[in-house]
Amino acid sequence: MKVSIILLSVACLVAHVTAYGQSIHHGQKTRNVRTHVRRNTTSGDVPSTQGSNFTIDGQADYFAGTNSYWISYLTNDSDVDLVFNHLQESGLRILRVWGFSDVNSKPTDGKVYFQLLQNGSATINTGPDGLQRLDYVVAAAEKRNIKLIINFVNNWSDYGGINAYTTAFGGTSTSWYTTPAIQDVYRKYIKAVVSRYSQSSAIFAWELANEPRCSGCDTSVIYNWAASTSAYVKSLDPQHMVAIGDEGFGLDVGSDGSYPFTYAEGLDFAKNLEIDTIDFGTFHLYPSTWGVPNSFGNGWITAHAKACATAQKPCLMEEYGVTTDKCEIEGQWQQTGLGAKGIGADLFWQYGDKLSAGNSPNDNYTVYRGTDDYECVVTKHVAEV
Ligand SMILES: *[C@@H]1O[C@H](CO)[C@@H](O)[C@H](O)[C@H]1NC(C)=O
Ligand SMILES: *[C@@H]1O[C@H](CO)[C@@H](O)[C@H](O)[C@H]1NC(C)=O
Ligand SMILES: *[C@@H]1O[C@H](CO)[C@@H](O)[C@H](O)[C@H]1NC(C)=O
Ligand SMILES: *[C@@H]1O[C@H](CO)[C@@H](O)[C@H](O)[C@H]1NC(C)=O
Ligand SMILES: *[C@@H]1O[C@H](CO)[C@@H](O)[C@H](O)[C@H]1NC(C)=O
Ligand SMILES: *[C@@H]1O[C@H](CO)[C@@H](O)[C@H](O)[C@H]1NC(C)=O
């Protein structure tokens, strides 16, 4: 998702700054937790694919899940636990989180950041206001047997993204994919994250980027980047699945000729799916921001299902949302996803809950626990799954 969520999330984080005073204490606590994170897994436990399905704990099934970009940045452990308890109670099995927070200058307000990119150099923050926050998320997921998708970089400027790299190292949002110095820094970051959690039972999959686009580029740019980066991730962690994290743009099968089906953003869904170090396809669904009607959704889902069935890899419907009539519209998409051979799981955008400092960020797509929309988009859907 790309919206002005950064403003909301900043408001949320500011509310948590008071909790930062406890960071030394948390640091000690999370160090202990990390020992727990490092538990080895046996290969049968590792989430995987089986034809068009995913498997969790060795069981092939259809899974329902959700997204929470902000959970990695919470500074209150109780809030993290609360969310995971609620996810577990709700029967949501997969949670997609941001594994990045890139900044160009060191925050002075206690804001959580994972990597400082400044003046041509990169420093990874493994401190209590850095990756130790992600450690807590991973440990909390392990305890509830919830599986995480951890994403390495944002195309958008929220939490730094590609723009934070180009600010520190030069280049543009399109040259980012092919600039060796930048890719070297990006890989070092990937290595830090993957090696930190590769033995955790909580990992569902690694994801190369959130909504990578290369506007106007030949599709070979993203294809080559995805092929070489996913091979690199597999070299670090052959056990876990790897996906791209793209919106699913660029597809001939089932195309109605509208913008999302075109190759304008430099993506070729079917070709990217052929990469053997990419385990499953991802696609998003936001008709209102793409300039198509909501009725576009069902065709978009079945088109991807078909492409994934052909590739014999599952598709993950990993972000979808509307701002009004969530129950009716998202409910229909969920039905289509569940019924389509080729779709293995869906994650609505985005989960909402009541945290110690107030509601989690609201981008109008948020489905808050305890609301009628939640009954429908979560409770009913999970029961059907
Ligand atoms: C953390 O969250 C818990 C539970 O919601 C709350 O009781 C506590 O006051 C919070 N701590 C801080 C420092 O905000
Ligand atoms: C995890 O444990 C298994 C079985 O003991 C072992 O074969 C494997 O090498 C371990 N993996 C790592 C990365 O340590
Ligand atoms: C995938 O799961 C569905 C049920 O969710 C089942 O009918 C189908 O046989 C499974 N396919 C494979 C290849 O396991
Ligand atoms: C990095 O550059 C900024 C100006 O862009 C400067 O203020 C700062 O001192 C530099 N930092 C280092 C570590 O060189
Ligand atoms: C994300 O990708 C699009 C398409 O290449 C580009 O226009 C946009 O600037 C990118 N975002 C950032 C923050 O670079
Ligand atoms: C959510 O919707 C309200 C009412 O339409 C609007 O005022 C607000 O700006 C929206 N928030 C976001 C983040 O788009």
Automatic annotation (TrEMBL):
<dbReference type="InterPro" id="IPR001547">
    <property type="entry name" value="Glyco_hydro_5"/>
</dbReference>
<dbReference type="GO" id="GO:0046355">
    <property type="term" value="P:mannan catabolic process"/>
</dbReference>
<keyword id="KW-0732">Signal</keyword>
<dbReference type="GO" id="GO:0005576">
    <property type="term" value="C:extracellular region"/>
</dbReference>
<dbReference type="Pfam" id="PF26410">
    <property type="entry name" value="GH5_mannosidase"/>
</dbReference>
<keyword id="KW-0326">Glycosidase</keyword>
<dbReference type="InterPro" id="IPR045053">
    <property type="entry name" value="MAN-like"/>
</dbReference>
<dbReference type="GO" id="GO:0016985">
    <property type="term" value="F:mannan endo-1,4-beta-mannosidase activity"/>
</dbReference>
<protein>
    <recommendedName>
        <fullName>mannan endo-1,4-beta-mannosidase</fullName>
        <ecNumber>3.2.1.78</ecNumber>
    </recommendedName>
</protein>
<feature type="domain" description="Glycoside hydrolase family 5">
    <location>
        <begin position="49"/>
        <end position="330"/>
    </location>
</feature>
<feature type="signal peptide">
    <location>
        <begin position="1"/>
        <end position="19"/>
    </location>
</feature>
<comment type="similarity">
    <text>Belongs to the glycosyl hydrolase 5 (cellulase A) family.</text>
</comment>
<keyword id="KW-0119">Carbohydrate metabolism</keyword>
<keyword id="KW-0378">Hydrolase</keyword>
<keyword id="KW-0964">Secreted</keyword>
<dbReference type="InterPro" id="IPR017853">
    <property type="entry name" value="GH"/>
</dbReference>
